[in-house]
Structures are given as structure tokens and as C-alpha cells.
Amino acid sequence: MIHLQAVHKRFQRPDGGWFTAVEDTSLSIGAGEIFGLIGFSGAGKSTLLRLINLLERPDAGAVIVDGRDLTSLSARELRRARQNIGMVFQQFNLLTNRTVADNVAFPLEVAGWSRADIAARVDECLDVVSLGDRARHYPAQLSGGQKQRVGIARALASRPRVILADEPTSALDPRTTQSILECLKNINERFGVTVVVVTHEMGVIRSICHRAALLDHGRIAEVMDVVDGSVDARTDLALSLLEAA
Amino acid sequence: MDALAVHDALQNLLTLTPEIWQAVKETGLMLGIGLFAAIAIGGPLGIVLYLSQPGQLFAHRLLNGVLGWLVNLVRSFPFIILMVSLVPLTRILVGSTIGPVAAAVPLSFAAIPYFARLVEQTLREIPRGVIEAAESMGASPMQIICKVLLNEGRSGLISSLTILTISFLSYSAVAGVVGGGGIGDLAIRYGYYRYETEVMVAMVLLLVLIVQIIQIVGNRLAARLDKR
């Protein structure tokens, strides 16, 4: 479903020097997988995730999602391709002046759906995240966990084949974290959506991921299988993260 | 001031009612045209200023630099000098240099860059992540402007408009004195040149009242639109 081929991304620092966030990295993620990207801050995991929907454009390499190389698309084609890739953010990034229902409707308005189709789809998505009774509320009236569930419903709305989740639980308490992870897992199982989740917590990897890549200084140090909640790790870095968890 | 003097003053104001009403209409006209120009031209200019900043959707150093410099240039003119400098242009546009419509030309000129800066500043308050979320959903630049920037910034934009309106109520008084008419002009002509202090006092009180009303309406509207 997702193929990153030799992608490279560097940023200019304020002092004029260059910081390499992702270095010559290749990665394949299968359809229907929940794939984790784990590492310490600055390891390049968020950048790698943002390369998948081209929020960051790679300096070199190809980004192939659902059979299309996104780096070769025109601006208009890229916008269409992005409608097939939902995104969930650490800080939720909801529109504060729109109600919950209108937030979920946003990607559908963007995609040019009819009003009636939007209304029906919004109801469906809010049901999936059990927020049907909050449709008319504004984000400011919700708890963190509820906001993130709106974020998930919004990411789900346009029936994407991929959902990218950037530290979706890092702003939440442990119990809420668990319910959000369940929610992502549920969506993956019910709709077969491929989920890529960035985290710095091994607990997240253990509870929902099928596989995970450990990032270190912009490179993949190890790709780990997760079987029955136990992570098959070999590198010292991965083992230390497992111990800390 | 004894009772008789007070009576005379009120009597004088009463006879001036048609002139006062006329002055209010002239001020309204000047303000209306100026604000319309500010919103119609200064609004989009502010959006372009914001979007062309480094790190934004249409980051463009040169465009941003040139527009920013132009805005600063117009804003550096003391209003009275801007008015005088624009007399030839006003003559071309309006065919006259007196009257509220003529005075609205320099008012608009000053209001456009002023509002552009206010819009730019208001939009800067919107978290980058929200715009990024819209981008990630495949929103076009126009959709991001209308559905994200203007909608998320709407409360701040109303507050900006309130500030602009009140500032320009005061500018319109200056414009009035050099031939535009309006409340300020009336206050000067009767209150200052003809020593009818009661007219000056009444006009100032009227302006105080108008400012209070504008601010209250602006605050209420901004609060109602703000769902943060």
C-alpha cells in the first residue's frame, strides 16, 4: 500500500546549516497493516510520516501510495490523492469555529460531496467513534479524548485507504490513550484501512501494531514484528525502549 | 453658566439640528466608503501578506517584501499630508476635492494598508497545524482561505474591523475640516470659529456615544462568533 523508496529529507537550520531528518530510507507497508514508527525525539519519525502524504516533499526518492508516485503528481492530482489519506494529529487540529459534525464534514466538502451525502456520512463516522450525541457541540466543549475521536472521525470521513496518525495519544492520559488506540484498531479491522502511527511509546506499538520500524538519526535501525503484544526486537536501542515501557 | 445661558445653548443646538443630522450623514458616508475600500482591497491584501510570509502556503520573499514596504510607505504618511498629496488623484477620481465623497478617497487610501496589517496579524494567530490539517485533506488554496483562515479568524477580524472603524471615525473628522464636512467639521466651524462652545461639546459627546456603540456592537459580535 505504501512504498517509500530511498527518501531523503533535510531541513535548513536557523544558523544556515543543514539537518538531515530522514536519510536514504526505504520502507514498505502492506494493505490493512497497522504499522508503527517509533524512536526518540528528532529521530525523524514524524518527518517520515509526513513524507507519506507529502506534507513534506522529499529531496530525493519516491513516495508510492496505493500504486501512485505522489512526487510526480501535479498540485491538483496531489490534492485528490490526499483525499485517500486521512491524518490524525497530536494536537487534534480541529477547526474551533466549526461544530463536531461540521469538522467531520470538512474533508467531504473539500472533496465536493453533496449535502445529503455529507450529512449521512458524518452520522456514520460519528457513530464509529461513539460521538453521535456530540454532533452539535464545538471542540472547546469536548475533552481531549473526545477531540481526538473527532479527529479520527474526520480522518475516516472520505473513506481513505490509509490513515496517518502523528503521536495521536501523546497529549492524552493513559486511560484515554487506550480508548483511542482501540478506536484506531477497530477502524483498521472493520474497514481494512492501513494505519501508520508515530509514537515514542513502546506501549502503543505493543497494543495495536502488527509491525513497527525503529528510527534512529534519520535511518531505520530495525523493523520489528509484533506478535500477541510482544515485540520481537534485536537492537540494543529497541531493547532499551522495551525495558523503559 | 447660569440657567439662562444653558437655555440659550440648548436653543442654539436645537436650531442646528438639521445641520447636525447632515453632518452625521456625511460622516457616515465617509466612513462607509473608507471601510468598504478597506474590506474589499485591504482584506485581500492582508491575506496575500499573510500567505506570502516565509513558511506559509505561498511563501514568496520578494512579493512579501514589496507589499510590506508599500503598506509601510502609505502608513508612514501623517494623514493630513496623505490627504494633501492625494488632492490631484481625488480630483481625477471624484471630479472635486470637497465634499464627503472626495474626502473618502484619502480615507480609503489610509484605511486599506491599515486593515491589511490588521488582517495579516489576525490570521497569524491561527495555529499552523489547523491549516496543515486542511492541506492534508486535499483542500485547495481557495478552500483554505475561505473555510479555514477566514472562518477560524472571524472573531479577530471583527475586532480588527472595530478598531479600524473607530480610528477612521477620528480620521474622518480631520478629512472633514479640509472640505469633507461631517461631525468634526461642524464642531470646528461652530464650536471653534464661532465660539459656540456648546456645539463643540455636543459634537464631542456625539462622537463619544458613536465610539461606545461601535465598540459594544463589535465586542458582542466578536464574542458570539468566537467558539474557541
Question: What does this entry show, briefly?
Answer:
The complex is a heterodimer of chains A (about 240) and B (about 230). Chain A has about 240 residues and is an alpha/beta fold.
Description:
The complex is a heterodimer of chains A (245) and B (228). Chain A has 245 residues and is α/β, with parallel strands linked by helices. Chain A has 2 domains: 2-84 and 161-244, 3-Layer(aba) Sandwich (Rossmann fold); 95-159, no CATH class. Chain A has 8 helices and 11 strands. In chain A, the strands form 2 sheets. A 7-stranded mixed β-sheet of chain A has the order 6-7-8-3-9-10-11, with helices on both faces. A 4-stranded antiparallel β-sheet of chain A has the order 2-1-4-5, covered by helices on one side. The model of chain A has no long low-confidence stretch (mean pLDDT 93). Chain B is mostly helical. The model of chain B has no long low-confidence stretch (mean pLDDT 92). The chains are: A alpha/beta (245), B mainly alpha (228). The interface between A and B is medium-sized, with 30 and 23 residues.
